[in-house]
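Before anything else, study the sequence and fold tokens given here and see whether the fold suits the sequence. Record follows:
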Amino acid sequence: MKNKNIIYKILASGLLLLGTGCTDLDENVYDKVIGEETKFKAEDLASLMAPAYTSFRDVYWGWDAAFCLYEESSDLIVTPLRNGIGWGDYYITMHQHTYEAPLPHAEGNWAYLFGGVNNVNKAIFQIEQIPDLENKETVFQELRALRAIYYYLLLDNFRNVPIVTKYDLPKGFLPEQNTGKEVYDFVESELKGALPYLNDNNKRETKYYGKVTKWAAEMTLAKLYLNAEVYIGTPKWNEALAEVNDVINNGGFALTTNYLDNFIIENQSSSEQIFSIPFDQKKAGGSYWPFKTLAVESQATYELAGGPWNGSGGIPQFIDTYDSDDQRLKDCWLGGKQFDSKGEPIMITDPNDSSKKIQFEYLNYLTDVNGCEPNEGYRMVKYEIGKGQIAQTSNDVPFYRLADAMMIKAECLLRTGNAAEAAAIVTKVRERNFRKTNPAKATVTGAKLLGGSVYKYGTYKAGVITNYEGGADIEYGGFLDELAWEFVGEAHRKQDLIRFGVYSRKSWFSKKGDIGVEPKDYFRAILPIPKVQLERNSKLKQNPGYQ
């Protein structure tokens, strides 16, 4: 060890369950471990690895983290300025794609992701000190695969980031900036190198829940290859297909009977989850989402422990794309007249006549991103909201699930000329969502997936599309629609829109498309490197297009 005074802080409150379900989060941990004076033992392994995994909670549900970034820069969800309440601000620049540096979403994601990288490096450094640890190389490879997942997300959002694999670095060390291609190659190499060591059990044993397995690594490789044309300019559809084929055929996963089984509070037994981020309201709390989106009136519906903050809402142009028989519309969105937990109407003072009472109603309508009424916009509620819930939830996040693997396979087949087989897979994913309404509507055709999107793109104000663009010209637009209906609220959409060439050139709500800019030249497809990082490290250069 190079520095006797290196102190490692492992927070007991930040423990991730490494071997069981989402509520058993007790582990023996060190509040403060002084490296030179402490002799680590084999029984310390779980505690030393824990912080490397717990970082994923912030990566996904931290403030200004992945969820908000991927959803609120897209055509699905927006946080407008709420009249009499607030919000707006940098959420507007994110929605309108006018963001520059500094950008809170960039600063948050950079900090959370590199926090994860640092905790992995720290864990490897500490575990190296355990003498005679059985399967030490297997432990190291699992951690390297976890670090590669963090770097996959850094690549997706920033491209040109430093690759750091050591924890015991000299004082004043400044890492070199790597190119996007170098980061891509690193992620691929690390995951491939780890695969032979990772657990490939297909019995879904609880001791592997929330840990990086062979299947999680293959899903990350599949995502890497799925977006390879965006990242490095070379499509790798066949490589992505090979990875998900192994997950689908050999992983032992199965679609849940009901779509919402993946998002209930006690969802750790879901047969569909490939890699999950465990949460527990008391010991490892997560999502603030119900509070960020719901209006205060919905406190009575869910008997929440406090009043919600009334921020984010669904973009009406997206809500209007759903088939009325698609159960995911009701599963994911709260709209219309509202009732309390006893089924009684929630009454409010009529804003147009203070002497009258009217029933509170969420409207599928938005005025303008710079000013919306408190009840405008449907609210996303696909993650189960528990009675008495606080702004911390116990729902585990299904970061990768079988439907995702199946849709990656379908997209690869679609893009390589097998539309019929792709349609059969998409139909299978859709079936549970039409089973109780109109089963025949679950069936889609290859022609439908190859054709345009039903999304009515164009700028929108006060219920009117003011500059209609439509989605008929989007290649594979029918498939892009399917991705939105299945994965809204799962931090997918920004990546999907970029891959389909829609992120830059299409307009929605108050966001105007850059019609004359080729998608590959759209600099806001990646985020600015945070200014504070540029100031700290003279070796970093800002991403092109940002000042």
Observations:
- The first helix runs from residue 45 to 61.
- DSSP finds 19 helices and 17 strands in the chain.
- Confidence is low (pLDDT under 50) at residues 1-36.
